[in-house]
């Protein structure tokens, strides 16, 4: 795809990202600081976006600029993973951010160093696979210990928490979240 084709397709991509997140033009305008009419013109391809529009949109969508505009890949094909630390856990994204599902390696600290556990609920589903160690999974009043090689999947509207079952070493999982679940796990207060 040449530069002209990439630029011609940007509007439809912008509209697709907004619709995937379920945002109205007004909601996106409020979050990005760009007027709803400008966003509408960008999405319809009536104007080409500049950095002053793309940067705030990339922040709202949580995407790098090259993915936002579908820039052709050049150079090193490796995905450079940056750890995200939230709520005492370490999340390592396992791919380029985008799409309805996101995969993360999640490292749980030893139980002796973990924060106090609280039940959480949020829209979506969660799936995880234990790579190393063992974790406690609490779903409402049911508690299960999962060991390396075991997986679990559940509706996240069920009150739940996950924690390391081992007091002296970290536990590692691979977790797949839908967009609502990812926002709760990675950007919640």
Corresponding CATH architecture of the largest domain? Sandwich
Low-pLDDT ranges: 181-189
SSE string: HHHHHEEEEEEEEEH
Q: Could you give me the name of the CATH homologous superfamily of the largest domain?
A: Jelly Rolls
Strand order of the biggest β-sheet: 1-2-3-9-4-7
Number of separate domains: 2
The end-to-end span amounts to: 41 Å
Query: In CATH terms, what is the fold-level topology of the largest domain?
Result: Jelly Rolls
H/I helix tally: 6
Work out the helicity level. 25-40%
The largest β sheet comes out as: 6 strands, antiparallel
Number of strands: 9
**Helix-and-strand structural type:** alpha+beta
Rounded mean pLDDT is 83
Any idea of the CATH class of the largest domain?
Mainly Beta
Q: What is the radius of gyration?
A: 20 Å
Query: How would you describe the shape?
Result: elongated
Q: Beta-strand percentage? A: 25-35%
Question: What does this molecule look like?
Answer:
Helix content is 31%, strand content 29%. By secondary structure, the chain is of the alpha+beta class. It has 2 domains: 3-68, 434 Repressor (Amino-terminal Domain), CATH 1.10.260; 84-187, Sandwich (Jelly Rolls). Helix 2 packs across helix 3. The chain starts with a helix and ends with a helix.
């Amino acid at each position: 795809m040449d530069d002209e084709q990439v630029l011609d397709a940007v509007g439809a991509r912008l509209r697709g990202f907004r619709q995937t997140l379920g945002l109205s033009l007004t909601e996106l305008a409020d979050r990005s600081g760009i007027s709803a009419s400008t966003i509408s013109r960008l999405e319809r391809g009536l104007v080409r976006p500049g950095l002053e529009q793309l940067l705030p949109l990339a922040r709202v969508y949580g995407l790098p600029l090259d993915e936002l505009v579908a820039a052709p890949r050049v150079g090193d094909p490796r995905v450079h993973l940056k750890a995200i630390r939230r709520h005492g856990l370490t999340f390592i994204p396992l791919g380029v951010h985008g799409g309805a599902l996101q995969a993360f390696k999640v490292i749980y600290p030893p139980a002796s160093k973990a924060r106090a556990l609280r039940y959480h609920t949020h829209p979506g589903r969660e799936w995880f696979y234990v790579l190393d160690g063992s974790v406690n999974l609490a779903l409402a009043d049911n508690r299960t210990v999962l060991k390396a090689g075991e997986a679990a999947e559940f509706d996240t509207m069920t009150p739940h928490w996950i924690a390391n079952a081992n007091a002296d070493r970290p536990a590692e999982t691979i977790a797949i979240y839908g967009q609502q679940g990812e926002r709760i796990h990675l950007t919640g207060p």
